[in-house]
Amino acid sequence: MKYIVSWSLPHSTFHTAVGQFLEAGGLPPAGVKLVGRWHGMSGRGFAIVETTDAKALYAWVAEWSHLLPLETTPCLEDADAGAVLRSLKR
Predict the structure, then answer these.
(1) Is residue 89 scored above 90 in pLDDT?
(2) Burial tier of 34 (Cβ tally within 10 Å: 0-12, 13-18, 19+)
(3) Within the chain, where are the H helices?
(4) CATH class given for the domain over 2-87
């Protein structure tokens, strides 16, 4: 399953978070595939990850939670979302 992991970078933890990211790379653990990651100029960003191991994803999010407010949302690609929406036709 794919997930959207989004975050914002607060001023209060900016330097610590940047240091940790530059040192470790911010890569997810084994069992979680990073599909892509994007950083906005506003301090917000998001990653798309894929995993069948919710505990591994939770561990990655927990590793950063003291520095960044994070939100993790399961997501579907267009074809799958379309199939669901087609089934709702009245």
Answers:
(1) no
(2) middle
(3) 14-24, 54-64, 78-87
(4) alpha beta
Q: What are phi and psi of 46, to 5 degrees?
A: -155, 155
Q: Tokens standing for 65?
A: 């939670």
Give the predicted TM-score (pTM) of the model: 0.89
- Mean pLDDT, the chain, as a whole number? 96
> Could you tell me the residue ranges of all domains in the chain?
2-87
Give the pairing type, strands 44-51 and 32-39: antiparallel
Give the pair of three-digit tokens for residue 33.
Answer: 């595939």
Distances (CA, A) of 35 to 1, 83, 85: 12, 23, 25
Strand partners of residue 38: 46
